[in-house]
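A quick aside before the break. I want you to see a complete sequence-to-structure record at least once, exactly as it would be stored in a machine-readable document. Don't worry about memorizing anything.
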Amino acid sequence: MPALALVVVAIAGMIMGVIAASTIVTNNSFTGEVGTYHNNTGTYSPADNGLFVVSNPFSSNITTSVTFGASGTNKVLMNTLVAGDWCEKLTFTGVGGDGATHNGHVTVQNGTGPTGGTFLNSLNAQAFTLVGGGGSATGTVTMYLDLGSGTIGNPITVYVTTS
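That is the input. The structure line, written in tokens, reads:
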């Protein structure tokens, strides 16, 4: 009988614990984009897909000229990605009928105000080339930029220019 009572009390305790946890615990959603300035000028305005930590290293292909593909086609540009570093992700979407070559630069700074301060991972005018595919070339080009492993403070300023 005492063993059965102990089992009943344990089960009741687990049920009360689950009920308490589901009513007391508050979920908070934090993002890495708080305090970020964006300054986009030129032909394309990329979507900012946020900051994350690099899990797998990749070699650079950032100076490669990339042509937009058809809708649903995603191509990738990146500087050298180092596991454990911070990374900024930008996505450019092609413009239907555009067949021109567009030169671009991204600068990422960390520090005081919208003018920024310290260049993150030497990203001072990271160069890239986007080529419009013409016709219905409305695919995307996603850019991954390794920002280094140092402490990032607010605000981060991301400057994107395309011509």
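Two observations worth writing down. The beta strands are 36-42, 47-53, 65-67, 74-78, 86-93, 101-110, 118-119, 126-131, 140-148, 156-162. The radius of gyration is 23 Å. We'll return to this after the break.
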